[in-house]
């Protein structure tokens, strides 16, 4: 399985690639035909800067942003994204402002919360949500609910990878989408064509990586 992996470059910047492994994979809410590895884009500093530059483009000249909320270990990209949004320029909306980059935590009940010393950076602030990938929308919806609970004004959602079509009801600014992956399929875990055809699962996957079965 792993030996069949292939790379998909971003058309605008071929240095930015996602590693793609075909197979039969299960998330916590779906089955998919490919594992999409975006870790190099999150953790390689040079690539993370390029990613941030691309993700900033829809917001630089049009959107006031006070806080970037980072999910799924995207804080490195989030820091560079803040730098891009704050750079000097006559058409840059956030020049001379402050932007905070924060990550919520899970409480003992499994709910996302912001700690008391962080809440003021959410309440009545313009918030950009940054996630690693959007598939079922569970992570995004949980984060949006949390941000809204603390009084944040959500002005955008960005991701490194987006499974299309999205039923979120929100526009997502994404670097790559499932349309970039030849043959990519996503199924409900209760109605998976691969399972119905008797194809065994290869691995369990999440934003951290995969566990072979």
Topology:
Blueprint: E1 6-10, E2 13-26, E3 30-37, H1 39-43, H2 45-60, E4 67-70, H3 75-86, E5 100-102, E6 105-106, E7 112-113, E8 126-134, H4 138-149, E9 153-162, E10 172-177, E11 186-188, H5 193-196, E12 203-206, E13 209-212
Parallel strand pairs: 2-12, 4-5, 4-8, 8-9, 9-10
Antiparallel strand pairs: 1-2, 2-3, 3-11, 6-7, 12-13
| CATH fold descriptor | Rossmann fold
Secondary-structure element order, as H and E? EEEHHEHEEEEHEEEHEE
The number of strands is: 13
What fraction strand?
25-35%
The CATH architecture name reads 3-Layer(aba) Sandwich
Helix-strand category? alpha/beta
Helix content: 10-25%
The average pLDDT is: 92
Cα-atom Rg, whole angstroms?
18 Å
The CA-CA distance between the termini, in Å, is: 12 Å
User: If helices are DSSP runs of H or I spanning 4 or more residues, what is the number of helices?
Assistant: 5
The stretches of 5 or more residues where confidence is low (pLDDT under 50) are none
Mind describing the biggest β-sheet? 6 strands, mixed
Report the top-level CATH class: Alpha Beta
Total separate domains: 1
The shape, in one word, is globular
């Amino acid at each position: 399985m792993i030996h069949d992996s292939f790379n998909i470059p971003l058309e605008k910047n071929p240095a930015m690639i996602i590693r793609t492994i075909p197979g039969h994979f299960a998330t916590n809410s779906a089955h998919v035909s490919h594992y999409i590895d975006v870790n190099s884009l999150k953790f390689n500093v040079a690539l993370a800067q390029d990613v941030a530059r691309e993700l900033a483009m829809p917001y630089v000249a049009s959107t006031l942003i006070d806080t970037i909320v980072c999910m799924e270990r995207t804080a490195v990209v989030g820091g560079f994204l803040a730098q891009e949004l704050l750079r000097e320029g006559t058409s840059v909306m956030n020049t001379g402002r402050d932007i905070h980059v924060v990550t919520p935590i899970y409480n003992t009940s499994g709910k996302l919360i912001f700690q008391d010393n962080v809440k003021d950076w959410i309440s009545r602030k313009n918030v950009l949500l940054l996630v690693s990938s959007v598939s079922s929308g569970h992570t995004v919806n949980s984060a949006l609910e949390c941000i809204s609970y603390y009084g944040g004004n959500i002005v955008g959602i960005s991701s490194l990878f987006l499974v299309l079509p999205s039923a979120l009801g929100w526009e997502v600014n994404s670097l790559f989408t499932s349309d970039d992956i030849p043959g990519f399929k996503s199924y409900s875990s209760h109605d998976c064509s691969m399972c119905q055809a008797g194809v065994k699962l290869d691995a369990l996957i999440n934003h951290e990586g995969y566990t072979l079965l």
